[in-house]
């Protein structure tokens, strides 16, 4: 698992789920949805059973074969086998070799998960138009706010964004990596949340398109690029 996205409330069944992007030796870079909020960690390697999601025709989209989702993921830990931590450098090198020169190229290839390299990025906070002030709602006795909403984007005053250039030009996208929203929940929407990615040098950006609008993309993760990997990729091109 490389990334977990900000938890979202499912309109279909009212559950709260996160989506993950990971690498599989058999399937390549894929998304698995839905997943519970807990039980799998970033850069952990797991053995799981997946099947195609009939409601999502995107080639990279899979879902757990487990039926624990229908019981609030009770017993989920029995459906996964933790194999240890992944070789982060090896996985990122594979991602580098799967890079596209631009988002437009990802559209042409009909990809729904992809990578581009940017010479630099600017990750920052912006006012969240979806923000719901739960403190104000709590003033009314007959309204109860579910505990899980503290993890969702709607309860955050600020939205994480990223600005970068690729072969198409300038892009300004949402950055839906959950770790930044968790930082905001714990410490506030401070620039320090992006201290590990707002650094000099090229960055590898993981992108995913939207289910309903396939040509609209969201940034899912940002990784620092090691010069030796990037030079190897440039040599191939």
Radius of gyration: 18 Å
Low-pLDDT runs: 137-145, 232-237
- The global form is globular
The proportion of strand residues reads 25-35%
Major sheet: size, sense and barrel closure?
6 strands, mixed
Q: What structural class should be given to the helix and strand makeup?
A: alpha+beta
What is the highest CATH level, the class of the largest domain? Mainly Beta
Q: Summarize model confidence as the mean pLDDT.
A: 87
Order of helices and strands: EEEEEEEEHHEEHEEHEEH
Considering DSSP H and I runs of 4 or more, what fraction of the residues is helical?
Answer: 10-25%
How far is it from the N-terminal to the C-terminal residue, by CA? 28 Å
Beta-strand segment tally? 14
CATH architectural type of the largest domain: Beta Barrel
Give me some keywords for this one.
2 domains; three-stranded antiparallel beta sheet; six-stranded mixed beta sheet; alpha+beta; OB fold (Dihydrolipoamide Acetyltransferase, E2P); 237 residues; disordered C terminus
């Amino acid at each position: 698992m490389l990334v977990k996205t900000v938890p979202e409330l499912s309109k279909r069944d009212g559950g709260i789920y996160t989506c993950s992007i990971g690498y599989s030796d058999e399937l390549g870079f894929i998304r698995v949805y839905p997943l519970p909020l807990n039980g799998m960690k970033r850069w952990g390697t797991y053995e799981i059973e997946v099947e195609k999601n009939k409601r999502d025709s995107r080639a990279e989209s899979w879902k757990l074969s487990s039926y624990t989702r229908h019981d609030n993921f009770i017993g989920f830990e029995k459906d996964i086998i933790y194999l240890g931590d992944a070789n982060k450098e090896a996985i990122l090198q594979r991602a580098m070799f799967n890079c596209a020169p631009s988002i437009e190229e990802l559209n042409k290839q009909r990809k729904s998960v992809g990578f581009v390299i940017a010479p630099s990025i600017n990750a920052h906070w912006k006012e969240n138009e979806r923000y719901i002030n739960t403190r104000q709602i709590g003033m009314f006795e007959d309204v109860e706010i579910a505990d899980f909403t503290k993890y969702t984007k709607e309860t955050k005053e600020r939205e994480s964004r990223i600005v970068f250039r690729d072969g198409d030009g300038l892009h300004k996208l949402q950055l839906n990596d959950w770790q930044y929203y968790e930082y905001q929940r714990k410490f506030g929407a401070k620039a320090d949340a992006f201290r590990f990615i707002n650094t000099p040098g090229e960055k590898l950006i993981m992108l995913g398109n939207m289910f309903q609008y396939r040509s609209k993309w969201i940034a899912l993760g940002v990784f620092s690029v090691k010069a030796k990997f990037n030079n190897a990729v440039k040599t191939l091109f």
